[in-house]
Amino acid sequence: MSPPTTLTAWIDGIGLIAPGLPDWATAIDVLAGRAPFASAPSVLPAPALLPAAERRRASRVVRVALATGLAAVDHAGADARRLPAILAASTADGHNCVALCETLASDDPRVSPTRFHNSLHNTPAGYWGIATGAMAASQSLCAYDGSFSAGLLEALVEAASTGQATLLIAYDAEYPAPLFAARPIPDAAGIALVLSPAPTPASRARISVTPGDAAATVLADPALEQLRGAIPALRGLPLLHALTTGHAGRVQLEYLAPLSLAVDVAPC
Amino acid sequence: MLPLHLAHYTQVSCVGDGLAPFRDALQRGSGSLAPCRFHGTELPTWIGAVAGLDDSPLPAAFAAYDCRNNRLARRGLAADGFDAAVRAAIGRHGPRRVGVILGTSTSGILETETAFRQRGADGALPAAFRYAGAHNTYSLAAFVRAWFSLEGPAAVVSTACSSSAKVFAAAARMIHAGLIDACVVGGADSLCLTTLHGFASLELTAPEPCRPYDAGRQGISIGEAAAFALLERPAATTSGVLLLGCGESSDAYHMSSPHPDGLGARLAMEAALADAGLAADAIDYINLHGTATVNNDAAEGCAVGTLFGHGVPCSSTKGLTGHTLGAAGALEAVACALAIADGFLPGSANTRHPDPALPLDYLLASRSATVRRAMSNSFGFGGSNCSLVFGSAA
Fold this sequence. Notes:
The complex is a heterodimer.
Chain A: E1 7-17, H1 24-31, H2 52-57, H3 60-76, E2 85-88, H4 94-104, H5 113-117, H6 123-132, E3 138-142, H7 147-162, E4 166-172, H8 179-182, E5 189-196, E6 205-212, H9 222-230, H10 237-243, E7 249-254, E8 260-267
Parallel strand pairs in A: 2-3, 2-4
Antiparallel strand pairs in A: 1-5, 1-6, 4-5, 6-8, 7-8
Helix pairs in contact in A: 3-6
Chain B: E1 4-13, E2 16-17, H1 19-28, E3 34-38, E4 41-48, H2 68-78, H3 82-93, E5 98-103, H4 109-116, H5 131-135, H6 139-147, E6 154-157, H7 163-176, E7 182-189, H8 193-201, E8 222-223, E9 225-232, E10 241-250, H9 263-276, E11 285-287, H10 294-308, E12 313-315, H11 318-321, H12 328-342, E13 344-345, E14 361-362, E15 367-368, E16 373-380, E17 384-392
Parallel strand pairs in B: 4-8, 5-6, 5-7, 11-12, 11-16, 12-14
Antiparallel strand pairs in B: 1-2, 1-9, 1-10, 3-4, 7-9, 10-17, 13-15, 16-17
Helix pairs in contact in B: 2-6, 7-12, 9-10
């Protein structure tokens, strides 16, 4: 049997939207404990790069995915058109799903074409391409509560195999009733990273990721820890926390039990 | 990329369980599509349903995963000794070193559609409703990972109709990065009201068995299937079929219409050839995406003609099985593997008059031929494109 493999990349850009954490610049001080965390609903900007009709109709998963992805690309000073995009989410658009299921259960089960194409897990990836013009490969993954780590692994492998910077966008949003009872995700959130296979002038930290079995790192602040557990995309928060400490460290990210990901973080 | 071995592969679709009925259908050009009478839903279209799923629940130990999609996956695992081949690979490599990367578009949504018809007065879903093991997009890979007691990396790729083609690319990257030594790849996608009514709303379902690339094509026939392959690094003595290259691209054009010139499709095919280190004239057969919609076949045909000229034998096999959506990429990878292993070019069932606007060497009937290398195309909503190149190991 082979020993575990370690994958290394450099983080060139970070995007974040979470309840009470409207962007990465704000989150740095909160995660580092320099500013208090104040819970508030996630604010999801309309995707300015989409044509007007699509912009107005953009769902919450599309908004959170595009906004966090574009924030990470801007932070890295990268060109979105050139980046392979790895999207990872535990759900598609929950509001659309409930509306579609209600229609299909009704006496008139005819659905609208827009409802149908918005039901796809890869709808945000499709709109990412339409918004940015990126014709590079994109990926849409799901690994339930392990979706952040599944996306991180895929992005690291993509960067290693292509030798090019790769964009990870991990996001989720809520279901309304009655599906909320079965899957109680409270709000939308997203974490995006531009991962480069070699250091660049924009690099902020080096990460080395090794599959293992350690328990996931718990955040010291109970409110932030509650967010980590409540929204699958925020299983990546311990990595963002480590980036705010200013020194090297190791965090463990939840993946698919018994497997977790050990992430060694070293600032550049 | 370095080639990978399709150490084992199989399928279940409306033509039957395993390679034998699929090979027979491909060679005879006769499929098993029937008028749509699915769970009381009558629509003016034809579908490719797999028989016997309604009355064959998963074993009690896997009840948390029970849904039509995972029942279909289990049938696929049981076909052609695929289950035993995976267990042998786990014995060789260990449960941490065998990945599970599978494609689906709608997973177990049929369970949720049914649960919505059974809501109580308060609107709540029935207490027996299960989300994680059925509805959630990951439930397919969760079930297969649990079935084999695996502990390695896993994910579902859900990019509509390219899903189970892209799993080959994702698994190949993961094996070459050294994370795993083998991977269960493929897909399962099962009939549900979302896709039957959804494609009908787009006016993309044909009122007849679908006729890919026909001048009079009227749209798709929706099917369901599970198809699996076990990918491993080849040994020096490996025979059989290899994955030689993968190419992926995005249309960046429209959510449910292909780029009219097939630009994204062409980029995916070019990338797959480059990944395999092959020129276009090295391809002996192309299994087209060929859904039989007016726009898809026109866009793909344009892209194939631009890249390959008009001399490469090609066909769509969706007239046999219907369009199995998130399982189509893996099902048609298996079709390519059979064409290579058994030396034949599959014809296009139901197609009578190939579209003269798409001047390709389009195969109406199957015939014997040496197929050293075959390409399979899969293109999905959201502009997600994937082309794979397979070849003979000998």
